[in-house]
């Protein structure tokens, strides 16, 4: 049974707690609901919550699941941290993500002193690190709940433990092979949604902490994915973003293995769905059949995010990326030969241990050869516990920063030229929102993910309209509606 069909007021909350999931969570949601009703009456106003998301789209999706559970319990969303339940869904991919969370915790403490009902929960990637949990346990004792990436579905159960006991609740799982389906989720947008197709990562790139905090790779069953997408479409969604750390290795862990290309073909068949996006693609696993499927698809967007990380084969080897500069460039050639118009974007790390000036020049070279539509650039950040953290020859900060600035300049110039190549064309735009600076303008996205602002009206939100791309302003367009 789908959770939406369950009457949470009629669950026997005095009986024994179920052992199987998701029934066990339904039981705790119902229990928390009872508690929330009483509390609401006691304080004479609705209980409020806010989820603050740090990091990637995977975390954004997890936060929607947290919001779904909180709404079902009876909390009402607010946009300030002066709330009764504040959850930080954390990231730890680079050190500055951790620093930001610690910085904000002090502020939360001051809010908690003013609101005795306030509960503070920390979850997500950062909480999977022992040192972080130790530090919070010792120095941030006002935190109510800590959980990780593998058990966010347990939010109601953990909240129930917190309200029926004293002290911080800590529940971190080292890994899991469990995928709990059929839980509520509160979408940020009516017309587009992220859909997890797999969890975890098995690649162990030597700089990256993700495999340690998100566990081993596991794919969702295609039937569950298709069912979710059909339900989303029935609920007004026309664009899905398929999420996974390495979508190109989708399906390898299934009882009946299925490739990502095959999954895409199944998703393409969902009637009413108009656009399919996905991220992230690891170049080492991108198959020729995926290129074929993309080329022939009417729904897959004209965009591929293909992180290169570095241009030098030496550095790539030390990063454990399993491809060379030449094989990456050959792959890009095959993609461009099949889809000459496709937008390519990438991630690049500058200052990986041992990166020489010559290595860096190869990164610049690859950027010039591929001509990315845009690129996310990162200064290498040392993550304790990863193989790269103990490598000799960490690059000096000033050198790394100088390379970073040089790369950014190069990328910005190329990116502006690449983005402008559609000037004058008429293109389809999925209208997303009223422009935040000028309420006469609507903001939407092209198939290649570039933003377009044009005069329109809010009733267009969630539909696909035709827009003439009048003027490119670097990384976005000013357009005009074509009726
Ligand atoms: N330092 C800098 N950037 C990193 N990334 C992952 N780990 C690190 C690190 N230790 C970047 C990679 C990845 C993106 C999501 O984050 O470029 O593709
Ligand atoms: Fe990290 Fe590499 Fe896995 Fe991406 S593929 S999450 S960079 S280990």
UniProtKB/TrEMBL annotation:
Cofactor stoichiometry and binding remark: Binds 2 [4Fe-4S] clusters. One cluster is coordinated with 3 cysteines and an exchangeable S-adenosyl-L-methionine.
Q: Does the keyword Metal-binding apply?
A: yes
What InterPro entries does the record tag this protein with?
Elp3/MiaA/NifB-like_rSAM (IPR006638), Methylthiotransferase (IPR005839), Methylthiotransferase_CS (IPR020612), Methylthiotransferase_N (IPR013848), Methylthiotransferase_N_sf (IPR038135), MiaB_methiolase (IPR006463), rSAM (IPR007197), rSAM_horseshoe (IPR023404)
Q: Reaction catalysed?
A: N(6)-dimethylallyladenosine(37) in tRNA + (sulfur carrier)-SH + AH2 + 2 S-adenosyl-L-methionine = 2-methylsulfanyl-N(6)-dimethylallyladenosine(37) in tRNA + (sulfur carrier)-H + 5'-deoxyadenosine + L-methionine + A + S-adenosyl-L-homocysteine + 2 H(+)
Q: Which SMART domains match?
A: Elp3
Which EC number(s) does UniProt give? 2.8.4.3
Q: Which residues bind [4Fe-4S] cluster 2?
A: 201, 205, 208
Q: What cofactor is needed?
A: [4Fe-4S] cluster
Which molecular function GO terms apply here?
Answer: 4 iron, 4 sulfur cluster binding; metal ion binding; tRNA-2-methylthio-N(6)-dimethylallyladenosine(37) synthase activity
- Function recorded in the entry: Catalyzes the methylthiolation of N6-(dimethylallyl)adenosine (i(6)A), leading to the formation of 2-methylthio-N6-(dimethylallyl)adenosine (ms(2)i(6)A) at position 37 in tRNAs that read codons beginning with uridine.
Q: Which family does it belong to?
A: Belongs to the methylthiotransferase family. MiaB subfamily.
- The name on file for this protein is tRNA-2-methylthio-N(6)-dimethylallyladenosine synthase
């Amino acid at each position: 049974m789908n959770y939406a069909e369950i009457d949470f007021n009629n669950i026997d909350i005095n009986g024994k707690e179920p052992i199987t999931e998701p029934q066990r969570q339904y039981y705790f949601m119902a229990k928390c609901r009872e508690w929330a009703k009483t509390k609401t009456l006691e304080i004479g106003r609705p209980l409020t919550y806010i989820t603050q998301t740090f990091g990637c789209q995977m975390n954004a999706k997890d936060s929607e699941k947290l919001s779904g559970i909180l709404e079902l319990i009876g909390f009402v969303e607010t946009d300030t941290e002066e709330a009764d339940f504040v959850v930080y869904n954390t990231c730890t991919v680079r050190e500055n993500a951790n620093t930001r969370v610690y910085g904000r915790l002090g502020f939360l403490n001051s809010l908690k002193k003013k609101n005795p009902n306030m509960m503070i929960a920390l979850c997500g990637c950062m909480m999977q690190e022992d040192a972080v949990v130790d530090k919070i346990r010792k120095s941030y004792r006002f935190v109510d709940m800590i959980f990780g990436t593998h058990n966010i579905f347990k939010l109601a159960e953990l909240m129930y433990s917190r309200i029926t006991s004293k002290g911080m609740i800590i529940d971190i799982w080292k890994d899991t092979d469990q995928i709990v389906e059929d839980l509520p989720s509160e979408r940020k947008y009516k017309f587009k949604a992220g859909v997890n197709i797999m969890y975890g990562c098995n690649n162990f790139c030597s700089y990256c902490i993700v495999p340690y905090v998100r566990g081993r790779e596991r794919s969702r069953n295609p039937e569950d994915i298709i069912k979710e997408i059909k339900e989303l479409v029935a609920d007004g969604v026309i664009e899905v973003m398929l999420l996974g750390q390495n979508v190109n290795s989708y399906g390898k862990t299934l009882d009946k293995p299925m490739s990502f290309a095959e999954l895409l073909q199944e998703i393409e068949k969902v009637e009413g769905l108009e656009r399919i996006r996905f991220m992230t693609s690891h170049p080492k696993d991108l198959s020729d059949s995926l290129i074929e499927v993309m080329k022939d698809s009417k729904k897959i967007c004209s965009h591929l995010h293909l992180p290169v990380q570095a241009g030098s084969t030496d550095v790539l080897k030390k990063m454990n990326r399993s491809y060379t500069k030449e094989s990456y460039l050959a792959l890009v050639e095959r993609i461009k030969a099949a889809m000459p118009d496709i937008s390519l974007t990438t991630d690049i790390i500058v200052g990986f241990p041992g990166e020489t000036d010559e290595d860096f020049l190869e990164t610049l070279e690859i950027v010039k050869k591929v001509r990315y539509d845009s690129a996310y650039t990162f200064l290498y950040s040392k993550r304790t516990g990863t193989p790269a953290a103990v490598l000799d020859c960490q690059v000096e900060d000033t050198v790394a920063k100088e390379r970073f600035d040089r790369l950014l300049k190069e990328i910005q110039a190329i990116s502006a030229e690449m983005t402008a190549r559609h000037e004058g064309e008429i293109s389809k735009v999925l209208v997303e929102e009223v422009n935040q600076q000028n309420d006469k303008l609507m903001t939407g996205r092209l198939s290649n993910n570039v933003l377009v602002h044009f005069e329109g009206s809010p009733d267009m939100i969630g539909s696909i309209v035709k827009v003439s791309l009048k003027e490119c302003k670097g990384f976005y367009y000013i357009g005009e509606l074509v009726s």
